[in-house]
TrEMBL record:
Transmembrane segments: 30-51, 63-85, 91-116, 152-179, 219-242, 254-274, 327-354, 375-401, 435-456
The protein's name: TrkH family potassium uptake protein
Gene Ontology terms: biological process: metal ion transport
Membrane topology: Multi-pass membrane protein
A single GO cellular-component term on record: plasma membrane
Molecular function, one GO term: monoatomic cation transmembrane transporter activity
InterPro entries registered for this protein in UniProt: Cat_transpt
Organism phylogeny: Bacteria, Bacillati, Actinomycetota, Actinomycetes, Micrococcales
Record bears the keyword Zinc: no
Keyword rRNA processing assigned: no
Length: 474
């Protein structure tokens, strides 16, 4: 057995030792490097002539944008996904959606384990931090609120198995729809698995140019895709908690309860508000009967979790509806999920803090548990940084592309929240605008917590406190 301090003499061994050294020195920075490297690898693959249906080289900015949108599971496009890519290009996109769904830190830990041939403590800590960012931010956390280090192997297995099983079940459920649409059986199978993957990973790509518009009256298909998006947006820790509950009947943690309740509440509220605002809009729901209006409102609300699929022209929505969708997209889905946004637990903590302040309570309490102040500080930081990224992106798009404020804001939030719903602005952007949205998608998927940890070379501890002085707020 090779001693840990002894370096390998073979070229591969030296590369393995070098990667292991970087992973040990700064796991979060290593994760960002790995994630970004995969994006550039996919950019190279998509720029190859074999990837395009025409056999031509795809321009760099279009290949980069598609690669970022794929690996970040965003779903925004600058080319026609159904017509531009060849079978090879579509296969690259399909695999990229699976890769991106895993998560930044989890993906890096798997890559590190493959190279170093072991799932060591560093790799386990990276996965643990991906499932609960508080580990990166504040060190040790209550194990009842996180996946235990001893369960990381099972957690990774849950990620892989849930991707395969849930996507396969959804694909089989919607296969009859595509078989009956008149396409060949082979292409029907391909579309079924593509849509199932696109929905569960919350990407929102469509393999056909017409998208879901030909199936806008198919309640079964829309329902199945909504369920897939919902499951993907819950987060792998919640899915893992369900699998653990079936075995041990262990009580659900506060994180699981908050994620489920907040997700359902936002979905129902979005469903009701979108339906009320759009029921008389002749360009969206106005020509539908009451039942289909109800279905379409629910489907669009589900897609704001980060699904990105749509049966209508998003650009034709009422301005008030776009603003509601902006807010829902910005929140996004659950932590460590395939969805983006600031996460539903973040908005839940901020809401609970406001309620506690209104009641004059000194602690934030929910489900007979107290939420510590460092969680609140992190929630405020994530929200503030998210709003800053969206603001900078919106201003940049308004300046570079001449877009109006509402569409620039909508596209920026959709990119940051890796949602994929679009007013059509993305396909009309100049080259500089595609780079802006690419950076926004990257920042949204990497996550403000991961970025903060990656940019901090070391964690400093202050051994003294400054004198306290209260300022006037409000």
């Amino acid at each position: 057995m090779r001693h840990p301090s002894r370096r390998s003499d073979s070229p591969f061994g030296r590369i393995r030792d070098w990667i292991d050294h970087i992973a040990q020195g700064s796991p979060s920075r290593f994760a960002v490097v790995i994630f970004t490297g995969i994006i550039f690898l996919w950019t190279f693959l998509l720029s190859l002539p074999i990837s395009s249906a025409s056999g031509q080289v795809t321009p760099f900015h279009e290949a980069l944008f598609t690669a970022v949108s794929t690996i970040c599971v965003s779903g925004l496009v600058v080319v026609d996904m159904g017509a531009h890519w060849s079978m090879f290009g579509n296969a690259v996109v399909f695999i990229g959606m699976q890769v991106g769904a895993v998560g930044v830190l989890t993906l890096a830990s798997i890559m590190g384990a493959v190279v170093t041939r072991r799932l060591g403590l560093r790799q386990r800590l990276m996965v643990a931090s991906d499932q609960n960012p508080m580990r990166t931010h504040a060190g040790a956390v209550s194990e009842s609120q996180a996946v235990r280090l001893g369960e990381i192997g099972a957690m990774i297995a849950t990620v892989a198995i849930s991707l395969v099983v849930i996507e396969a079940i959804i694909a089989l459920m919607i296969l009859p729809v595509f078989l009956s649409s008149g396409v060949s059986p082979l292409f029907a199978v391909w579309e079924s698995f593509y849509y199932a993957t696109s929905a569960f990973t919350n990407t929102g790509f469509t393999p056909n140019s017409a998208g879901l518009e030909p199936f806008q009256d198919n309640v079964w298909l829309l329902g199945c895709l909504s369920v897939a998006v919902f499951l993907g947006s819950l987060g792998f820790p919640v899915i893992f908690a369900f699998t653990r509950w079936f075995k041990t009947r262990q009580r659900a943690s506060v994180h699981v309860k908050l994620t489920l309740i907040t997700t359902v509440v936002l979905f129902v509220l979005g469903w009701g508000v979108i339906t009320l605002l759009e029921y008389d809009n002749p360009e969206t729901f106005g020509d539908l009967d009451a039942g289909m209006t109800f279905v379409q409102g629910g489907f669009l609300s589900a897609m704001t979790r980060s699904g990105g699929l749509s049966t209508i022209d998003i650009g034709a929505l009422e301005p008030s509806t776009k603003l509601v969708i902006d807010m829902l997209m910005f929140v996004g889905g659950g932590s460590a999920s395939t969805a983006g946004g600031i996460k539903v637990t973040t908005i839940a903590v901020l809401f609970l803090a406001a309620v506690a302040e209104a009641r004059g309570a000194t602690d934030i309490q929910v489900f007979r548990r107290r939420i510590p102040n460092d969680v609140l500080r992190l929630a405020v930081s994530v929200s503030l940084w998210g709003a800053t990224i969206v603001a900078v992106s919106s201003v940049s798009l308004m300046h570079l592309a001449g877009a109006d404020f509402q569409n620039a804001l909508f596209e920026s939030i959709s990119a940051f929240a890796t949602c994929g719903l679009s007013t059509g602005l993305s396909e009309q952007l100049p080259e500089s605008g595609t780079y802006v949205l690419s950076a926004t998608m990257w920042l949204g998927r990497v996550g403000t917590v991961t970025m903060a940890a990656a940019l901090a070379s070391s964690q400093r501890k202050q051994l003294y406190k400054m004198p306290e002085e209260r300022i006037i707020v409000g």
